[in-house]
Amino acid sequence: TCALPISHIILTVAFVFLYVLVSIPDFVAMKTFLLAVATAVAVAQAAQLRGISSSGCSYSSDFDYIMLTEQWPQTECDDTFHCSVKPPNFFTIHGAWPNNFDGSYPCNCDSSDEFDPSKVSSLHSELVEYWPSLQCISDPDSCLDSFLSHEWSKHGTCAREISAMSTQLGYFSTALALREKYEILPALAKQGIYPSSSKWYSKSSVSTAFKSEHGTYPALQCDSSGYISIMAVCFAKNLTAIDCPSDNSNCNSDSVLLPDRKSVV
Ligand code: 5GP
Fold first, then answer.
1. 184, 241 Cβ separation under 8 angstroms
2. pTM of this prediction?
3. Which of 8, 45, 62, 63 is the most buried (most CB within 10 A)?
4. Which amino acid residue places its CA nearest to atom 24 of ligand 1?
5. Residues classed as catalytic
6. Ligand 1 centre and the CA of 131: distance in Å?
7. Phi/psi at 57 (5° precision)
């Protein structure tokens, strides 16, 4: 786990200071300031006791399910990465994330286990193809390792309870295998849903298309224009597919677009 007992110490010191200053009548402004500091620390402390950090992740490595998050490259290239070459025309992996049903998730569970590319060298070509970093799409190798390192440290180190994911090789190879087994685009195509620059589909038709093929509801996330940015497939800890909790979906309008890839953004 990744508990941060430092806030206990800060809280204690803040209250001792406060106690001393309250007994000196002239320091009204200082007392007010310290009261504000102590209150802020107390709020942070309360959040920590609930297990939630300011970035939203929990300090406990417990989790309920795995969400295999896949990005739609054209949307991510349009919105974030301004890719200089044509992006892939299939969903690529963003990460395999341990999540909780209450919306929290563990992160950064073992800083001592740093990502080591040599441990996943046997997967290199698959990772370049199916888990690329769109940030450096024109030079696929240049930041692949930093993307994978980020995913391993933040999420992968928290998934150890699943024995198939308990090592770096296991974590990445399991995610790649799940992507292949639950491929998204062919499932949509079987129901007549294809990438397009103009054809909008209802959210439910996209989700139902995936379910018809694979048996579970995915999560669907969109940008503010309704362009699909993420589709995710959820798994119980024994890696059987489950419906993704509906609060993982955030597309606001009923119609969504899966933008066809452009040659250059
Ligand atoms: P997360 O924290 O959501 O698991 O990962 C997002 C981080 O990975 C961001 O810091 C982002 O800059 C970096 N990153 C590198 N390559 C990619 C990519 O292809 N897609 C996304 N969404 N993030 C990427």
1. no
2. 0.82
3. 63
4. 133
5. 94, 151, 155
6. 11
7. -95, 155
CA 126 vs. chain centroid, Å, equals 20
How many Å lie between the centroid of ligand 1 and the Cα of residue 22? 48
CB-facing half-sphere around the CA of 110: CA atoms within 13 A: 15
Cβ(171)–Cβ(96) below 8 Å: yes
Phi, psi of 137 (to 5 degrees): -65, -25
**Tokens representing 25?**
């009548």
| pLDDT tens across the length of the chain (265 residues) | 333 334 444 455 555 555 555 565 555 666 665 556 556 555 545 444 445 454 668 767 799 999 999 999 999 999 999 888 889 999 999 999 999 999 999 999 999 999 999 999 999 999 999 999 999 888 888 899 999 999 999 999 999 999 999 999 999 999 999 999 999 999 999 999 999 999 999 999 999 999 999 999 999 999 999 999 999 999 999 999 999 999 999 999 899 999 999 876 5
The letter for the amino acid at 235 is F
Q: Which atom of ligand 1 is nearest to the CA of 132?
A: 19
